[in-house]
Every structure is written in structure tokens, then in C-alpha cells.
Amino acid sequence: MSNHPVVSNPDEITPQYITHAGIEKLIGITVSKQSLWRWETSGYFPRRVLLGANKSVWRLSEVMQWLSDREAERNHRATPANRFSVEG
């Protein structure tokens, strides 16, 4: 007997990891692997998980949180109080 759960409908499984191509599809723009690497090393984007010498993926939950953070930043900048404030 296996310790793995039985899945009756594979469409109900939420992927835990996402590939470079999946990231591009998710965010709707083309982003180079070099840009993702720069974003990662600067702390702007989640770190990848290396599955092998030539295969890396990202945790879907971390990428979704990154997108949520970008939306929150946009919403914060777009509020009238913030748009017209002068700091100095």
C-alpha cells in the first residue's frame, strides 16, 4: 500500500511549483531568465528552487505573494492622498 493520497480528479491539484514559462504566462509579459535572476539576487523576486543542473522552478505561493505585493504597491501609489503629497 502506498502512502500517497489517491486523487480522483487531477484538475483539482494545485501546482506547488511554476516554471519560467509559467511565470511569463501568469504575469502576462515576457521576462528574460536574466531579468528573473537579477530580480532574485536583488531580493525583488522570490528565489528559485534548483531541481537539477538545468532545471529550476519557483514556489507558486511565493510568486503569487510577489504579484499581490506589486498590486498593493500600485494601489498605495494610486490613492489621491499619496499621489499629490509632497515630501521634503
Compact summary:
With 88 residues, the chain is of the alpha+beta class.
Terminal Cα separation, in Å? 68 Å
Spatial strand sequence of the major β-sheet? 1-3-2
The third-level CATH topology is Arc Repressor Mutant, subunit A
Order of helices and strands: EHHEEHH
The major β-sheet equals: 3 strands, antiparallel
The CATH architecture can be given as Orthogonal Bundle
Q: Please state the CA-atom Rg, rounded to the nearest Å.
A: 18 Å
- Beta fraction of the residues? 5-15%
Number of DSSP helical runs: 4
CATH class: Mainly Alpha
Uncertain ranges: none
> What gross morphology would you assign?
extended
Give the oligomeric state of the chains in this entry, treating copies of one chain as homo and distinct chains as hetero: single chain
What does this structure look like?
The protein has a three-stranded antiparallel beta sheet with strand order 1-3-2. The chain has helices at residues 20-27, 33-42, 60-78, 80-83; strands at residues 17-18, 49-52, 55-59. The chain has one domain: Arc Repressor Mutant, subunit A, CATH 1.10.10. It has 88 residues and is of the alpha+beta class. The model has no long low-confidence stretch (mean pLDDT 83). The protein is built from four helices and three strands, in the order βααββαα.
